[in-house]
Amino acid sequence: MALNQTPASERIHIGFFGRRNAGKSSVMNAVTGQNLAVVSDVKGTTTDPVYKTMELLPLGPVMVIDTPGIDDEGELGKLRVMKSRQVLNKTDIAILVVDGSEGMKKEDLEMQELFVKKNIPYLVVFNKADLVGERAEDTSSDLAHVMRVSALTGEGIQELKEKIGTMKKADEERDLLEGLVKPGDMVILVTPIDKAAPKGRLILPQQQTIRALLDHGCMTMVVRDTELADALKKLPEKPDLVITDSQAFGKVSKIVPKEIPLTSFSILFARYKGNLEQAVAGVSMLDHIEAGDKILISEGCTHHRQCNDIGTVKLPGWIRDYVKKDVEFCFTSGGEFPEDLSSYKMIVHCGACMLNEREMKYRQAWAKDQNIAMTNYGILIAHVHGILKRSVEPFPAIAALLDN
Description:
Structural class: alpha/beta
Number of helices: 15
Number of domains: 3
Helix content: 25-40%
Distance between the termini: 44 Å
CATH superfamily of the largest domain: P-loop containing nucleotide triphosphate hydrolases
Number of strands: 14
């Protein structure tokens, strides 16, 4: 990622869906003004979702996604259709491209129903207007969501771009540090440097937290856990907040005086991207684990596994030491997240810095619907080290739940 590039997880995700040869890729290329996807008369040219980050005014930084045809056939085709539907879980704005010469088909109507069910703002775009001739309204779709374009001639493309620009909800901008800091506060960030850390760079949660602190007008000190004690001694006053990497929770909590608020990057992102209350409640399932239970450890990114990887090595080790029972661990990463969660006793998810808010909330809602406890790396690590209450004290409403 370039130094000043907006992270993919912070971009508005725009998904283009439709049947094979409806012109999804052509419409997407016309909207973006770039040849982002391969265009062909051969059905099924797009076999996997194609992601591209770019600037699309007036929205700003976006992620555009071209998907396989929703009418693909055969066993491999079914997998492609499944991939297209999975993209919905991270889509902020959906564009359903329909072959204007054929009109809405069964697959189009089913996809439109999914947009509504998942509460995704959407447009139905009838492509190939140059072939249709007279304008004909398609009564099978809500006309408030309908547009007609020609990717070939450019008819309607500018209007489509302008319409897309009005579709993002006018929510207040999310704030990673809402209610935690004020201008002039001194905040210490504890960032251990381990083998998995990219050389010459900080990991994304650390970068985003530093930027958020700057936006709030805070003074920031970044130290490793090995220098934390000396840093505290050299400060003329106690810091207003300490934020640590979850892996160092145990060590850091012993160094930082109890009167100084302490939390972790992972817990901050659990609140920022999803439902912190659900994640804190979910960790209690760890006290009810039985021998033979399965625990899913899920990461939102894919990376080269190191010998002491947190997801596949450290977390299972901490959990085994805590429950003192023989449990089975399963692992997913990146865009993978099981549809059927019924075989798992609980799910432990990463901080989701690489997932957008919609996808993280989908995963939490999916677990809740199946009555599966779901928590977060930082919350679980704090729990097994006996400092969960302290780590969520900066969030009084959440901390109060632990008193009940």
